[in-house]
Amino acid sequence: MELIGRGREADVYALGEDRVLRRFRDGRPAEHEARVMRWLGAQGYPVPAVHEAAGTDLVMERLHGPTMSEALRRRPWRAVRYGALLGRLHRQLHALAAPEWLPRLRADGHGADTQEADGQGAAVLHLDLHPDNVMLTGGGPRVIDWANAHAGPPEVDVAMTFVILRGIVLRPHERLLVRGLLRSMARSSGADRRAGMPAATQRRLADPNLTRAEEGLVHRLQRRG
């Protein structure tokens, strides 16, 4: 199999022109992500079609086109446009009332069983919705990587995007692009990310894949609120 993508938690292999295999390296089962994507697809949200899930493997539709990150690097002057699109994807997702089987997010930004958590105002949250996880296909944007999906308040999801993008080490011109993108996203998302910052920063700091430099940036965001 041809390796065509490698994230922090999973590898992606090509299975011909129309399918890919996403395989988790940490041994986690793929069924949760498959169930989320099937449910979202049935609601009309733009996700890849799921073909099969077994063990750590998820077989799904192969998408053709750049990620939003790749497109932004090629056309940085479109940062505002892409930020608005990211905000609309947030808004469209958060308009969906979360199914009861989706784990709820606790106030500290971590997951809990549905019977243990407060489901008040529970929308579907991606919790990793940033330009690397948006594919710009000929048929429109598609959102990928649903392993972290939970139910909870929309402001935490928007805050997570903010924390992820402001919490990575960037060159000066990249920081300017990210700021423009995030301002545009904030205007179109319909959620106040400031209310979600405490939970988002705590959740981000719990990520074992963070580098020391990234931890420092997130701590700085945490202090600023």
From TrEMBL:
SUPFAM superfamilies per record: Protein kinase-like (PK-like)
Residue ranges annotated for the Aminoglycoside phosphotransferase domain, each copy included: 3-108, 122-163
Superkingdom field: Bacteria
Gene3D superfamilies reported for this sequence: 3.90.1200.10
InterPro entries cross-referenced by the UniProt entry: AGP_Transferase (IPR051678), Aminoglycoside_PTrfase (IPR002575), Kinase-like_dom_sf (IPR011009)
Entries under Pfam families matching the protein: APH (PF01636)
Stretch list, region Disordered: 188-214
Protein's recorded name: Aminoglycoside phosphotransferase family protein
